[in-house]
Design a protein that fits this description.
Blueprint lengths: L1 E5 L3 H13 L3 E5 L2 H10 L4 E5 L7 H10 L6 E5 L4 H9 L4 E4 L4 H14 L8 E3 L2 E4 L4 E4 L2 E2 L4 H12 L7 H8 L9 H16 L7 E4 L3 E4 L4
Parallel strand pairs: 1-2, 1-3, 3-4, 4-5
Antiparallel strand pairs: 6-7, 7-8, 8-9, 10-11
Helix pairs in contact: 6-8
Length: 225
């Protein structure tokens, strides 16, 4: 899952980016509203963390602009303001949630998970497909009774497939979803990570084609009834 963090406080931005990365999110950062808008126009994001008090284009105006142009990704606003009217203005601008600084990091992460689930209301808190289970709260992956020891990118790949059941992803689409815009590797990296996941799944008894290759197009998670 890919998050855009728009925050002009360097310390807060650095701490949040580090915490989100540890939770296996790909994170892009922007230091002002205009830069954030330009990044949204180029890249696809699953969620925006948006500070209200920003240079060039404030968070409220950016939120209005995003919704006006049809962007529907969840937006969680961060602000030092805690007045009731400020929250109302933010939500009326199109934000989905509102967190007041200073905030509890674990609560913020829980709100992010809730917003990502809300984007697909059919998804339960624990993502499942057959004997495969992924818990976004603990970042634990289990197949049958076996816990899988995955790298961060392997975990992120499985989460992407489980959140988008049966959807076919090209290598390019996977790169865009799971890598930050400053750290996108060659498409061969996707093949390498897919191979790693398959080997680990096979070692615990999963079918060899659980992650299915549609040749010339991409990959998807195969459903087993």
């Amino acid at each position: 899952m890919k998050i855009l963090l728009i925050e002009d406080d360097d310390q807060i931005a650095e701490a949040l980016a580090e915490a989100l990365t540890k939770q296996h999110y790909a994170v892009d950062t922007a230091i002002d509203g205009q830069a954030g808008w330009e990044m949204v126009e180029v890249f696809t994001y699953d969620l925006l963390l948006l500070d209200v008090m920003l240079p060039k284009l404030d968070g409220i105006s950016l939120c209005h602009q995003l919704r006006k142009h049809g962007y529907s990704m969840p937006i969680l606003m961060l602000t030092a303001k805690d007045a009731y009217t400020d929250k109302v203005i933010g939500l009326d601008a199109g934000a989905d949630d509102y967190v007041v600084k200073p905030f509890n990091l674990q609560e913020l992460l829980a709100r992010i998970r809730a917003l990502l689930r809300r984007g697909n209301s059919s998804l339960p808190p624990i993502l499942e497909s057959g004997d495969l289970q992924l818990n976004p709260n603990t970042c634990e992956v289990i197949y049958g009774e076996h816990r899988l020891n995955l790298t961060p990118k392997e975990y992120a790949l499985l989460e992407l497939f489980l959140r988008n059941s049966s959807r076919l992803f090209s290598r390019g689409a996977i790169l865009e979803h799971l890598w930050s815009s400053e750290d996108i590797p060659e498409e061969e990296a996707v093949k390498t990570h897919i191979k790693g996941i398959r080997q680990k799944l096979k070692s615990v008894g999963a079918p060899a084609d659980l992650i299915e290759t549609v040749y010339g197009i991409g990959y998807r998670l195969k459903k087993y009834i």
